[in-house]
Amino acid sequence: MSFTLFATAIISAMLINNVILMQFLGICPFLGVSKKSSAAIGMSAAVLFVMIISSAITYTLYDLVLYKYGIPYISTIAFILVIASLVQFVEMFIKKTSKSLYKSLGIYLPLITTNCAILGVSEGNITNIWVNHIGDYWGGLLIALSTAVGTGLGFGLIIFAFSSIREKLEASDVPAAWKGVPISLVVAGIMSLAFLGLAGII
Amino acid sequence: MENTLPKIVRKTSPYLRRPKASVTRMMRDVTIALLPVTAFAIWKFGMAAVVIIVLGILSMAVTEYIYYQIVDKLNDEKFKFKNKSYTLYNFSVVTSGLIYSLTLPDNTPWFVVIIGAAFGVFFGKLIFGGMGQNVFNPAALGRVFIFVSFGTMMSYDIDAVAGATALTVLNDDVFNIAVLDNFSLINLFTGIGIPGSIGEMSAILILLGGVYLAFRTSFEVRIPLAYIGTVALLASVVAIYKGLGVWYPVFHVLSGGLLFGAIFMATDPITSPITKGGRIYFGFALGVLTFFIRVFGAYPEGVVFSILIMNMFVTSFDYYKWTNQQITKRQKIIFTTVVLVTIVITIVGVSYVG
Questions:
Q1: Could you read off the pLDDT of B83-133 as tens digits, one per residue?
Q2: Which of A146, B154, B235, B264 could potentially form a cystine with A6 if both were Cys, beta carbons 3.0 to 4.6 Å apart?
Q3: Chain A partners of B129 at a C-beta cutoff of 8 Å?
C-alpha cells in the first residue's frame, strides 16, 4: 500500500483505460453535453464529484453489508438505488445551501444519476480491486477513490477536447449530410483509434 | 439592408504571417525537403519503394478527385475537369501522400497502401471540409488505421539482421546494451544497413530536409525542437538512473520514426497549435507520449500514435481562455513544474519496469 499504487490507479483510469474512449461508458453525456466547452467543464466537474462520493458509498456498502450478509448478487440493484437517492439528496442539499454552486454544478446532477459511467466505476471497483484486498477495508477504499478520481479526470479531459473540436467544427465547411452528430461520431471514432496506442503502458 | 452589413471573412488555417508566405510555397518546400529521403528510399528498396510511393500519392489524389466530382454532381453543376477545391494544385495532397508512403514498411501489400491512403484522406480531410479545416493529420490517420487493421501484413525486410527493427528489439528488452551489436549508431545515423520503414531510416537526410525548411521559414521550428528535445531529455534521465551511458538517448533520437515524424508530420500547420507557448507544450506532450509508448507500451513505436493523440488536443491548446502569444514568467514556472513532474513519473515508471 504505497503512494505509487494510487498514482498508478489514477493514471491508468485516466488515460490508458479511459472511460469514454476505451470502455465506451458515458457516451450519452459525451455526445449530449459537448456542444459548448463551458457546459462540458460543468458536466465533467459534476461527474467527478458524483463519481467520488458514489464509489466511496458503494464500496463501503459492498464491503460492510452485502458481502458480510451473503447477498453480493444484488449489488447492481443496490448500487442503482443508492446512487440515485444519494445524488438526489446531494442536489437538494446544494440547492438549499449554495446558490452559486447549484448554478454551476446542480443542473447537471440529475443527468448523471442514472449514468452508466458512474455505475461502471462502482462495479469495476468491486470486481477488480475488492477481490485483491479482502478484509482490508481502508486500502481498498483508497484505491476505489483513486480510480474514481482518475476516471472523472479522464472523462473531463476527453469531453473538453471533444467539445473544443466540436466548436471548431461548427465553423467548418463540413458537407451538409455530415454536419452535427455524424461528424462528431467520426471524430470520436478517430479519437478512440488514437488512444489504442496507449495500450499496455500499465 | 443585409447588403450594407460588413461581411466577416473567415480564413482557414494555415494562418501565415510571414512575408512572401503562401500555402503553395510552403507545401512545395516540404515536398522538396522530402526529396532526398525519397531518393534514398528508392535507392535502398528499388521497385518496392517506387510502388508504395506512387500508389500512396495517386490514391490520395484520386480519392480527392472523385470526392469533389461527386460533390459537383450533387450540387447540379456541370462536369468540369478542373475544380478549384483540388489541393493537387498547392501540393497539399502530394505532401500528405508522400509523407504517408514514407512511413510504411517496405513489404506492405499494394491494397493496404491504397486502403490506408483513401481512408486517411477521406476521413481525415475531405469530410471535415477539405484543406485547412481538418482536425487530424491525414497521413498519420491513414498510417494508424492500417497499422491497427493490417498490422500482421506489414513486415519489414529481413535481409539485414535479426529480422526486426531497432525499436522492436528494444521493445522486448528495454534497457539492453546488446542492441548496439546489431544496430550501431553510425548505421542509424546514415540509414545504411538497417531495416525500417522506407523513409524513416536515414537521420542525416531527414535533418537535411529539416534544415532546408528552417532556412526557408516554411515550418515551425519550435515543435520539432521541443519534441526531439523532450525525448532526448527523458532518455537521458533514464540513462542516468539506470547507468546506461550516452548511447541510450542518442539511440532513442535516431531510431524509428522520431526525426521524420517530428520534422514532417508534427509540424503540419493545420493540425498544430497557433501560439508559441501552445506549440512548445504540443512538442513536449508529443515527446512524452512517444517515449512512454516506446518504453512502457505494447507497441514498439509511438510516433504516429502520439501525433494523432495530440491532434485531438490542438483545439484545447488554442482555447481562447488560456491562449497567449507572450510567454510570461508564470507560464515558465508552470512549464518547469510540468517537466519536473514528468521526469519523476518517468523514473518511478522505469523503476517498476525493471
A1: 766 777 778 888 899 999 998 888 888 999 999 999 999 998 888 887 778
A2: A146
A3: 172-175
CB atoms within 10 A of CB A76: 11
**pLDDT given for residue B160 in this prediction:** 41
Distance from CA of B212 to the nearest CA of A (A): 31
- Of B114, B200, B107, B100, residue with least CA distance to B144: B100
Burial class (CB in 10 A: 0-12, 13-18, 19+), B185: middle
Q: What is the pTM of this model?
A: 0.87
The DSSP secondary-structure symbol of B161 reads S
Rounded mean pLDDT of chain A? 85
What pLDDT was estimated at residue B16? 63
Tell whether domain B23-350 is in CATH 1.10.3430: yes
pLDDT at A187: 93
CA distances from A148 to A22, B134, B190 (A): 16, 34, 49
**Contact A198/B309, CB-based, under 8 Å?**
yes
A7 → chain B, closest CA residue = B345
CB contact under 8 A, A4 and B128: no
Neighboring chain B residues of A159 at a CB cutoff of 8 Å:
none
pLDDT digits (tens, 9 = 90+) for A104-159: 776 777 777 778 888 889 888 888 766 666 667 888 888 889 999 999 999 999 99
Residues in chain B with pLDDT values less than 50: 1-2, 158-163
Which residues from chain B sit within 8 angstroms of residue A169, using beta carbons?
128, 135
Domain positions in chain B are 23-350
Cα–Cα distance between B320 and A75 in angstroms, integer?
45
Q: How far is the C-alpha of A108 from the C-alpha of A50, rounded, in Å?
A: 10
A46 Cα distance to chain centroid: 9
Residue B283: burial class (beta carbons within 10 Å; 0-12, 13-18, 19+): buried
By the 8 A CB rule, do A164 and A38 touch?
Answer: no
Dihedral Cα B108, B111, B112, B118, nearest 10 deg: 130
- Among B309, B310, B341, most A C-beta atoms within 10 A, so best to mutate, is B309
Cβ-contact A126, A62 below 8 angstroms:
yes
- Let me know: does B80 contact B26? Beta carbons within 8 Å: no
- Of the candidates B297, B312, B319, the beta carbon closest to that of A199 is on B297
Residues B200/B301, Cβ–Cβ less than 8 Å: no
Do residues A106 and A95 lie in contact, with contact meaning Cβ atoms separated by under 8 Å?
yes
Task: Return the pLDDT at A188.
Answer: 92
Q: Which residue of A has its CA nearest to B313?
A: A161
Q: What is the pLDDT of residue B1?
A: 42
Question: Is the distance from CB of B291 to CB of B230 less than 8 angstroms?
Answer: yes
| ipTM confidence score | 0.86
